[in-house]
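Re: weekly structure request thread

Next one in the queue (447 aa):
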Amino acid sequence: MKLEYKISLLVAVAIPLLFNNQLSAQNQMTLQECVDFAFEHSYSVKQKILEKESNYIQLQARKTSIAPSVGVNVGQTFDFGRSPQADAMIVNTTQATTNFNIGLNIDIFQGLRTHHQIKSDKLNIEATLFDIEDAKENIELMITAYYLQALLNKEILEVHKAQVVLDQEQVKRIEVLVNNGKSSDAELYVANSTLATDQLSVVEAENSVRLSLLDLAQLMNYANISDFDIVNQDNNSNIDEILNRNMDVSMAVDNALNNRPAIKAALTRIEQTKREIKVAQAGWYPTLSFNAYFGTGYYYRFKDIANIPNRPFGEQFKNNARESLGVSLYIPIFDKLSTHYNVKQQKIRAKTQELQLEETKRTLIKSIEQAYVNAVAAKEKYIASQVANTATKVAFRYEEVKYNAGSSTTYEYNDAKNKYIRTQSNLIQAKFDFLFRIKILELYGKE
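Done, posted below.
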């Protein structure tokens, strides 16, 4: 029995030493560094950026569409039998015909269709930029939550390590008493058992730290996970200042409705749909275009006709030339109500975007109000946890003095110690929960 106990004790001591080497990572990152890294490597942000670049290319293509279109056409034909001549006569011969023409076309008026399409494309790019900012805000919030969770687990780990130190000191004290005949072996066994249990708690706490760091690194798309760690920030230095902050939910709501990227993106898309209505309405207007044409041809007969020789290329190119200028006006009279229904569809889209805006506002207000209630509750829980932690700390110190004086039992000592550990853990959890709730409100309320 003693051998098994010594082996379990040895394992409990060796495992933390092994894991401590793994936890000593080289690259310690602050919260802001984690957020910046996540921005740079986030797939969702990269997709939004590619979407913005695609929309920008579409805008550039739309702008160049107002330029004149110019085209050149060259054709070569071989005729056998009856073939048309340059003078439009059709004769029985074998010949080769080379045609060359160049044309220009300019859209003078299209009901301002292209103008409104360009405005719509610009608004689409603007909305995409807001989408990128919204994606970054969501990432920042998630990174903050995972970062604070890792810090929480680190602080809980330190609590368990501190308890192990107390247990080790207690074991040494009892060993001295046992050697002097003032304590029994049973009490030493209980002390060693408590030490092994608390060392196991350290192992479990270290595992929680590793898992929380792994979750954070994976969320950031950090490749070298074995080299990743975060800075052990002191969150107690400004906690009193944060507790005294005025949490104004109405101000947070006003700032959110005026400044949040999701709201701005929805407003921009409403403006875009209004432009799309004008694009659709352009189908009711006449269109006016200008065109210019130059063409010529070269005819080569392989078989003479009435001793008529083939004219030189330069002479034919000049004599067969044809130029034209023209203006084309198209007046839509009845297009099977296509434009009418297209306009109605765009108006429905506009109303849908307006409803989407109201839904986004409602969801945002609901989230802020919930965040405010959670922040108030977290604040009250933290204050209550402070009181409980102070009380159990004092109780444990008194019990420790009594136990060392021999006027208290091991059970009473361990019970007081365990209560103190629980209140310490509860205080740490309440603190980080409060910090996270405040971070949410700050994010919603920032200008």
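Residues 1-25 have pLDDT under 50 and may be disordered. Residues 234-285+333-447 form a domain with the Outer membrane efflux proteins (OEP) fold (CATH 1.20.1600.10).
Next request, please.
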